[in-house]
Amino acid sequence: MIKLSGINAEGEEKEYSLEDFKGQKVILYFYPKDNTSGCTQEACDFRDNLNRLTSKAVVVGVSPDSIKSHINFQTKHGLNFILLSDPEHKLSEQFGVWGEKSMYGKKYMGIIRSTFILDEAGNIQKEWRKVKVKGHVDEVLEAL
What we know:
Elements: E1 4-7, E2 13-16, E3 26-30, H1 37-48, H2 50-54, E4 58-63, H3 67-77, E5 82-85, H4 90-94, E6 98-103, E7 106-111, E8 114-118, E9 124-129, H5 136-143
Parallel strand pairs: 3-4, 4-5
Antiparallel strand pairs: 1-2, 1-5, 3-8, 6-7, 8-9
């Protein structure tokens, strides 16, 4: 069982594992980095649609950023859902979203933007890999 530090919607630090969400559907989305343009847009899209989503599932964002970075990201953008810190890539590797990426011809390891809907038992119900941010939250809502 993987436990990660995270912050809840109120900005309080807490330890989480996916087992904490048994009995609820979960939208588990992995993103590369706090406060970058694509990740900010994706987080704000989840924030802006949270009322439509939470009637169906809990939203949990995961990146390798620190808790301090998450608190800053949450505060700056008024994020109203759980953000988990995965600096050792444990959860990211478990879901197969930690991998080789390329930017400007340089290869490096990082999070491959992905989203999973987990059912009440914690099984993957639906997945999106290499997510394009624009319109993604609507795809998630449709799948729910």
